[in-house]
């Protein structure tokens, strides 16, 4: 099951507690709405089949939920252009593609995400050493 509520201008806090009842979801797409508020840390707990999460272009606030680290099959995580803040968690999932651009995230990019395209971190308040490292890896890959 892979529901999509993309591009609808929905503008309420999403009921994540109800989402956990759908433990067999493989993907979840809410991009291009006006969803807002914090996503609870345990919002995606137990969703072991989840492969793709697309929440970008909303008005989410708070930290990236730690339950994302509990999704063993996650390969695509799109959180760009919202208001997430704090540090980027140290994701461990193999072959994970992320997009955190244009949020209020700060600090270092975890080493596990070091091979990602630099554009996926644009518009973030990263420390200068991290920005230099991204520029170097981008220019050497051309």
Automatic annotation (TrEMBL):
Classification via Gene3D superfamilies: Ribonuclease Inhibitor (3.80.10.10)
InterPro entries xrefs: LRR_dom_sf, PRK1-6/SRF4-like
Superkingdom of the source species: Eukaryota
Protein name: Pollen receptor-like kinase 1
Species the sequence originates in: Abeliophyllum distichum
């Amino acid at each position: 099951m892979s529901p999509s509520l993309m591009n609808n201008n929905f503008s309420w806090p999403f009921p994540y507690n109800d989402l956990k009842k759908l433990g067999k979801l493989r993907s979840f797409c809410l991009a291009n709405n006006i969803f807002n508020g914090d996503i609870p840390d345990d919002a995606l707990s137990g969703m072991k089949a989840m492969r793709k999460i697309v929440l970008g272009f909303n008005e989410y606030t708070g930290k990236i939920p730690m339950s994302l680290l509990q999704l063993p099959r996650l390969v695509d995580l799109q959180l760009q252009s919202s208001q997430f803040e704090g540090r980027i968690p140290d994701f461990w999932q193999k072959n994970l593609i992320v997009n955190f651009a244009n949020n209020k995230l700060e600090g270092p990019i975890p080493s596990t995400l070091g091979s990602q395209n630099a554009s996926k971190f644009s518009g973030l308040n990263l420390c200068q050493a991290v920005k230099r490292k991204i520029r170097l890896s981008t220019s050497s890959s051309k």
